[in-house]
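Protein in question filed below.

…
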Amino acid sequence: MSEADIGINIWINEERYEKLQEAGLADLAHDKLAGMKVLQIKCTEEQKDEILKKFPMAKYDASTTRTIELLPREVKDRIFEIALKLKSTGPEVIEEFLKSA
């Protein structure tokens, strides 16, 4: 697999932040906008291509953020739950997600 330098940003509200704290991942959430936090899940080039194929409404911003945008909320919710379960934000989260997507 290629290097995991592509991200999927998941916005973190208070409820999600509490779950991150319980999982020991709260320090991975970064302040982004007006006090809102974001958790970035990394994926590989191959995983990005598979996500874009499975979810055609999603878009990849190659020029500025190198992130996958416009994924449905339920997709991001599932990715967040997997990140908590695996206690990780690495490409193994997306690998697990793609097995069930």
In short: The chain is about 45% helix and 25% strand. The mean pLDDT is 94.
